[in-house]
Amino acid sequence: MAAKRDYYEVLGVGRDAGEEEIKRAYRKLAMQHHPDRNPDDKAAEAKFKEATEAYEVLRDADRRRRYDQFGHTAGGAGAGAGAPATDFDIADALRTFMRDFGGFGGFEDLFGEQTRRPAGGPARGQDLQVQLRLTLEEIAEGAEKKIRLKRTRPCETCRGSGSARGGRTRCQDCHGQGQVRQVRSSILGQFVSVTACPRCHGEGEIVSDPCLNCRGAGSVPDVATVAVKVPRGVSEGQYLTLRGEGNGGQRGGPAGDLLVFVREKPHEVFIRRGDDLLLELPIGLPTLALGGKVEVPTLTGRAEVAVPAGTHPNRVLRLRGKGMPRLGGSPAGDLLVRLHAVTPTRLSAREKELLEELGRLQEGKVPRPGKGFVERMREAFGG
After folding, report:
1. 3-state secondary structure of 375
2. Tens of pLDDT along 176-229?
3. CA distance linking residue 69 with residue 72, whole number of Å
4. What is the pLDDT of residue 268?
5. Run of H or E residues at 53
6. CATH architecture of 270-380
7. Which class in CATH covers the domain with range 1-104?
8. Is the confidence at residue 88, as pLDDT, over 70?
9. Do 125 and 246 contact (CB within 8 A), yes or no?
10. Out of 4-13, 100-109, 121-130, 193-202, which region has the weakest mean confidence (pLDDT)?
């Protein structure tokens, strides 16, 4: 079993950090590694649990004092007892986060929307997320796409209440609070966690006469086609927020949002590097030696690039403004053209004769191994 890291190191704070600094540091880490944001990611789950365990100890003055004195053995009968500081699992970590920050709530909390509401009151609909695959040409020019998605909308029969006649009774398990408190004893003391009531699912009320149309859910399935306008210059992983295009709310609550995540399709010719585009261009040895102009493809057509005489293979030439447009109307990136020398393998008699003549003319001009050879080769090949 791996040794536990120092709690101050886990949260990234000094040993003299105050309560608010510890809380801010923990919230930042918890938001980054929360399981809702990193589904099926065991590494993120472990970091979330580790951060929460550190926070639980350092936020409490008495536990922190004992930890400062005895370290991770503070949970034992005394210093050096060797007992683990806590038996902390992911369920404990999630309860701790919910207790102090009101729950994660999925993407709506992640992007700044709040979903907490009074028990039994209007409920905001759940946010949805989809992935939109785009070509580099579509990203460069901007695009309008239509997305077909499955979502829910409020039941018209019961107006989203879930009840046939509006009959809802107070939940007896949570006494209408929508939350239940649990006290769990551990080596470091008692942990009090607050979770959503499992009977009413946090609503504080129970539907006594379920609507026949939605079977008490308050919502029904819906299929919709949504138009998405993608601006020029977006990048892989960025997202667009379509307000009110998510699942419908309940009991008069607003609909959630639709988050459209951009995914770039691999291009046959170009490799994107931020706002620049990279083009690997095969080129003949005569052009490298004599120089000239070469026509190259761009995202919007064709362009000419000037190859200086005596250009070495693997040199990168830059075409300003021929790359990807930037969000906000800033100047576009550049097209980077990397030159790759093409060695002929099938030669006619005339071509072979010319190359042999060139070889005779070049005798004595090719650098030989010796003093300064490595430096000259590095200089010749751009090293």
Report:
1. helix
2. 787 887 777 665 556 667 788 888 777 788 887 888 898 888 889 999 999 999
3. 9
4. 94
5. helix 42-58
6. Sandwich (2.60)
7. mainly alpha
8. no
9. yes
10. 100-109
Which CATH code for domain 123-163+212-265?
A: 2.60.260.20
Please identify which residue in the block is written with the tokens 């403004």.
Answer: 321
Distance separating alpha carbons of residues 251 and 163, to the nearest angstrom:
10
Task: Phi first, then psi: give them for residue 11, nearest 5 degrees.
Answer: -85, -10
Residue 5 has pLDDT above 60, yes or no: yes
Q: What percent of the chain has pLDDT over 90?
A: 37
- Ordered by start, the domain boundaries in the chain are 1-104, 123-163+212-265, 168-207, 270-380
CA distance 108 to 312: 54
Tokens of residue 265, six digits: 């399709």
198 Cβ contact list (under 8 Å, min separation 6): 173, 180
Which helix (H) or strand (E) segment holds residue 289: the answer is: helix 285-290
Question: What's the one-letter identity of residue 56?
Answer: E
CA distance 190 to 223: 48
* DSSP secondary structure of 170-227: E-TTTTTSSEEEEEEEETTEEEEEEEE-TTTTTSSEEESSB-TTTTTSSEEEEEEEEE
Tokens linked to 212: 């026949």
The pLDDT value recorded for residue 361 is 77
pLDDT band at 376 (very low <50, low <70, confident <90, very high): low
Residue 284, token pair as written in the block: 């003949």
Note the pTM of the prediction, 2 decimals. Answer: 0.56
| Contact partners, residue 224, CB within 8 Å, separation at least 6 | 148, 149, 151, 245
